[in-house]
Amino acid sequence: MHVATFNFSISSKRMFIFITLVLSMIAVSVSGQSKIVTGKVIDPNGQPAALVTVELVNQSNHTLAGTTTDMNGEFTIEVKNFKSYNLKFSYLGYDNQTTALGTRNFVHVQMLKSGKLFDENNVSDANKIGLNK
């Protein structure tokens, strides 16, 4: 069996250790990049919108993280690895709102009233199973 050996001079060993440490620090800082995004959601009257669903979505609209607004309409969500993400806001009776996050750390959104409360598919499905009699 052959075991690989390395013959370094003292200066080569120091250089090797230095480069290894630098590369390790870069790898840790890149993989651990995250930021906290906060925001406020208001209703059409400018009042805080409580319990609004807030989703962090990628460009394919896949949810990566989520939270809800508190009673003051405020939310906090952690964003890992800076990429092109959107925040999607939804609440029954309001149109969904989507905004590009970009480099912002604070997002302010005003929900808009929807013209419909239920999706037509939900109503027709309720009729099929006999809920609307």
Q: Can you characterise this structure?
A:
With 133 residues, the protein is an alpha+beta fold. It contains two helices and nine strands; from the N terminus they run αβββββββββα. The chain has a domain of 82 residues: Sandwich (Immunoglobulin-like), CATH 2.60.40.1120. The protein is 23% helix and 34% strand. Strands 3-2-5-7 form a four-stranded antiparallel beta sheet, with no helix packed on it. Strands 4-1-8 form a three-stranded mixed beta sheet, with no helix packed on it. Strands 6-9 form a two-stranded antiparallel sheet. It starts with 9 loop residues before the first helix and ends in a 5-residue tail after the last helix. The mean pLDDT is 80.
Oligomerization: single chain
- Identify the overall geometry: elongated
Please count the helical segments.
2
Fourth-level CATH superfamily of one domain: Carboxypeptidase-like, regulatory domain
Shape-level CATH architecture of one domain: Sandwich
CATH topology of one domain: Immunoglobulin-like
Which CATH C-level class of one domain is it? Mainly Beta
* Strand order in the largest sheet: 3-2-5-7
Largest sheet: 4 strands, antiparallel
Radius of gyration: 25 Å
β-strand amount:
25-35%
**pLDDT < 50 runs, ≥5 residues:** none
SSE sequence, one letter per element: HEEEEEEEEEH
The overall average pLDDT, rounded, is 80
Tell me how many strands there are.
9
Distance between the termini: 82 Å
Task: State the helicity in percent bands.
Answer: 10-25%
Structural class: alpha+beta
